[in-house]
Amino acid sequence: MLRKCFRTTLLAWRQLVKEKTRLAIAVVGIAFANILICAQMGFEASLFDSSTAPQRGLDADLVVVSSHFKSVYSVKNFSRERLYQALGFAEVESVSPLYMGYGKWRNPQTRRIQSILVFGTDPRTTAFKFPEVHQNRSQLQKLNTVLFDQASIPEFGPIATLFQQQSTVETELNDVSIRVVGLFILGASFGAYGNAITSDSTFLHLFPDHHPNQIQIGLIQLKPGADAQQIAKILTDDLPDDVMILTKEDFARVEKAYWAKTTPIGFIFGLGVIVSFIVGIAIVYQIIYADVADHLPQYSMLKAIGYSDRYLIVVLIQEALLLAVLGYIPGFIVSLGLYQLAAAATMLPMFMTIERSVTVFVLTVAMCLISTASTMRKLNSADPADVF
To answer: Where do the domains of the chain lie?
Structure first.
């Protein structure tokens, strides 16, 4: 059995390498399709990872948001009173409000304005998991001080470099003089190119039109041993229906669904994967079909001397698998470099994962096998009588 499989594989390999130019075109075509698929999947994953980064950074068991909530980047207000009502439940340990708003950050060097997402939190509470926030809680209690996200895009200025050199950076936010007293890492996203964290007092000073009783996100810490899913259901049933109570996992899931199903960009990335897959099928089909057509007399001869259609089909399948491997390798290598370039240029989290690399390989194999299946009718047309 192994010897027979080796013979068919050897025949498939010789078929491929006989026309080296055609083989090179096929490899380049498959690699190109792989690069397109990897790029689309990479940007889509970057979209989801970056958009849900704030949710993963929150230090809370449950999250309270408006019943009209769709995305953290366009969050609706609700009454702060709902947090105090939640605090009345025995299983709730503590609550903390979180303000959010887009401010105008002035680059301290170029003086240009750039929109930045600002989080306002009570520095006496633990709203975020970032260790830098805990280390600078006393600094944040001072008015007009902020922590700056050093993973923001460069247009905000070399804040991290200046801070490391001077231990403080002065600039303007919403035309108010502020001081950067620390750095943290959250990262840019499709919804915000940069982030800053400040105290609730400073936030209300920076956004004077924002009513203190209107908050965007409420954070709930539960007592040890409390079941988050169960408490979320209890709070949902008992609190007014103008708010939703979500676990952190559900909070991130709602955000991901918003970008995947509601926004055009999520649809475009998903469609891009499908189009790239179809392009790969078309490329491989043309290569294999041309190979079968050129070698139809040889296939007819093989049938005439006793080789079955099944044997020839196995040869075609092995050709497809060899093409899949040969095209995947350069496509994967180029995609790694593309990810590094894109991550450096956009400051978005783009990196190759094992899961994605396996998925792309499976899609490559499927792409080649589908193309092969489409050419089998041409192979079946090989008639031994044509030899004589």
So the answer is: 2-51+264-387, 68-241
